[in-house]
């Protein structure tokens, strides 16, 4: 199989989809797949072949083309698989028309021309079907698994924030609901007996709310190893998002044995399974009570830690990447 992969975003994406792409490349290379990375310029050294994206439009140059980055940004002549992780880009606010067009065009092109679309949850599948008018039979659900790096173990205790702490990860967007969590945290721990830690982005609204409520937020910009330690040491990990195509933070935290409190909405429900407390992302009282319970009650905390760790202890972390390759091979077989 001659597989071409859209690699335009690969050097910059080191989280969920970036990890999956690298895993697919690793497995495909081991299985003697002929790989070509499509990028405007060769961004790194390695054992891969590189070609300009416009080569994908050459008939019979490749057997199949894979677009991992939320849509299609250049044409191809071969059968194609395009990933659409979610449709939130269709609803971005505060952008001028040029930015909106740049974000939405790849989604529209994928909906129009991809032979198969992959997404991360049944919830996202329904959104794509409804908002992009893609027939359901063209959409394949391939859920993420936490990278093997995220596992139960000892954290670097001497370097962790003051315990006990509640961890929120990547809360820069409005839908991440960071300001809501700050309010619930302030309600739960008015005497300051817990610490709120924000890893990665944190919205200006959430920062302002923290100042108003007198909540000191410990900010972190972690690499993967540091993030794993933060998960391992957390009294709980909070995911209060109002909408997610998937819940990558949920599954990473579970795999590290952290108790998880998350929203009972969108793709988060599928990600969390039975190993998290799921709550309405608008019910501050329930979040206040849940935060108190998980931080203060060793029985609740231990139960959630055990459920999350057990869930991912037996899972093949490469299964999603193998599923991507299976879809790509199916597209090649259909064309033959």
Helix content: 25-40%
Strand content: 15-25%
- SS-based class: alpha/beta
State the distance separating the first and last CA atoms.
11 Å
Q: Indicate the CATH topology of the largest domain.
A: Rossmann fold
Biggest sheet, in brief? 7 strands, parallel
**SSE order in H/E notation?**
EHEEEEHEHEEHEHEHEHEHEHHH
From the spread of the alpha carbons, the general shape counts as: globular
CATH class of the largest domain: Alpha Beta
Explain what you see:
This protein is of the alpha/beta class. It has helices at 16-30, 97-113, 122-131, 178-188, 204-213, 224-233, 248-255, 268-272, 284-296, 298-313, 319-335; strands at residues 2-6, 34-38, 49-51, 64-67, 80-83, 116-119, 139-141, 165-171, 195-202, 217-220, 236-239, 260-263, 277-279. A seven-stranded parallel β-sheet has the order 3-2-1-4-5-6-7, sandwiched between helices. It has a six-stranded parallel β-sheet with strand order 10-9-8-11-12-13, with helices on both faces. It starts with a strand and ends with a helix. The mean pLDDT is 93.
In brief:
This protein has 336 residues and is of the alpha/beta class. The chain has helices spanning 16-30, 97-113, 122-131, 178-188, 204-213, 224-233, 248-255, 268-272, 284-296, 298-313, 319-335, and strands at residues 2-6, 34-38, 49-51, 64-67, 80-83, 116-119, 139-141, 165-171, 195-202, 217-220, 236-239, 260-263, 277-279. The strands form two sheets. A seven-stranded parallel beta sheet has the order 3-2-1-4-5-6-7, sandwiched between helices. A six-stranded parallel beta sheet has the order 10-9-8-11-12-13, with helices on both faces.
């Amino acid at each position: 199989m001659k597989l071409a992969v859209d690699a335009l975003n690969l050097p910059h994406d080191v989280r969920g989809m970036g990890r999956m792409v690298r895993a697919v490349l690793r497995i495909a290379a081991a299985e003697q797949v002929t790989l070509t990375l499509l990028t405007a310029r060769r961004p790194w050294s390695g054992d891969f072949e590189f070609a300009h994206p416009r080569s994908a439009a050459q008939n019979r140059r490749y057997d199949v083309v894979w677009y991992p980055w939320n849509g299609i940004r250049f044409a191809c002549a071969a059968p194609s698989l395009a990933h659409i992780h979610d449709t939130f880009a269709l609803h971005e606010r505060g952008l001028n028309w040029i930015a909106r067009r740049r974000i939405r065009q790849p989604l529209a092109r994928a909906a129009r021309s991809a032979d198969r679309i992959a997404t991360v949850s049944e919830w996202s599948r329904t959104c794509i079907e409804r908002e992009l008018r893609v027939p359901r039979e063209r959409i394949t659900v391939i859920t993420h698994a936490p990278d093997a790096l995220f596992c139960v173990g000892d954290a670097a205790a001497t370097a962790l924030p003051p315990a006990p702490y509640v961890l929120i990860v990547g809360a820069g967007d409005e839908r991440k609901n960071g300001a809501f969590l700050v309010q619930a945290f302030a309600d739960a721990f008015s005497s300051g007996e817990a610490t709120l830690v924000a890893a990665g982005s944190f919205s200006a609204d959430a920062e302002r709310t923290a100042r108003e409520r007198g909540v000191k937020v410990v900010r972190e910009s972690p690499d993967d190893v540091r993030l794993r330690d933060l998960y391992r040491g957390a009294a709980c990990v909070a995911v209060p998002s109002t909408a997610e195509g998937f819940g990558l933070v949920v599954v990473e935290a579970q795999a590290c044995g952290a108790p998880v409190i998350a929203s009972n909405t969108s793709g988060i429900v599928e990600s969390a399974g039975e190993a998290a407390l799921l709550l309405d992302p608008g019910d501050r009282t329930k979040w206040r009570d849940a935060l108190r319970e998980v931080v203060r009650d060793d029985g609740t905390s231990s139960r959630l830690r055990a459920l999350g760790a057990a869930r991912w202890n037996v899972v093949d972390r490469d299964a999603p990447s193998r599923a991507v390759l299976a879809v790509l091979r199916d597209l090649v077989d259909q064309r033959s």
